[in-house]
Each structure stands twice: as structure tokens, then as C-alpha cells.
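I hope you will forgive my troubling you with a question about protein structure. The matter concerns a single protein, recorded as an amino acid sequence and a row of C-alpha cells. Please examine both parts with care and let me know of anything in them that strikes you as inconsistent. Thank you for your consideration; the sequence and its C-alpha cells are set out here:
***
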Amino acid sequence: MAKKEQAAVVEEPKVFAIVRTAGKQYKVSPGTKISIDTVEGNPGDKITFSDVLMAGKTGGSEIKLAAAGKSLGVTVTGRLVAHKRDKKVIIFKKRLKGGYTKKQGHRQDKSEIVIESVSL
């Protein structure tokens, strides 16, 4: 009996980028949904990320790194989906033997963005 040969599945390399916004870094690729600190705009508006730290394709081919203070020349664009609020964080302070307690809550405003394209 002859063994059946299986066709090798070759995955196309995916494009990715690491962007920095509001002091935080996010690894994104087309179709990725991220939740970042609030940006101005209405749902449906296009958002362009100018601070790209690294970009490339999975598998190690074509990786670009940004040197300190220089632009990479890579553009990452996304679409603003919605403005939301994050989960509530409870802040509770207490001093022992002092009879002091303080309870606060905080909800951070967030913007949800879907990445549409990463152009190398």
C-alpha cells in the first residue's frame, strides 16, 4: 500500500508592528483590535500611529528597528470603533489603630481601535 502524501501547508508571513501610544506599547497586525487610552474622534474615524518602534513579517524576514529619535517610515492605520470605559478599580486605604478608612473607585476611559493596515 502506498502512503498518501499530505500537501505541505505554507503560511504566508504576517505583517506586524509595535506601536507606542500614551506611553504604552502594543504589538499589532491587520485585523487586531486594541483598547488604548482615549483618543479624540468619532466612531468610524481613521487613526494613524506615527510612533512605530519596530515592524516586520513573521518568520524573521524584513525586520525594521527604529533607532533612538528617528522615524522608521512605516505607517500603521486603524479605525476607531467605540469609546468605552474600563473595569472599575477599587482604591481602599486604611490606617491601623487610627480609625481611618477611605474607599474610592475609578473607571478609565478607553478607545477601541481595529488595525486596518501596516505598510512596510
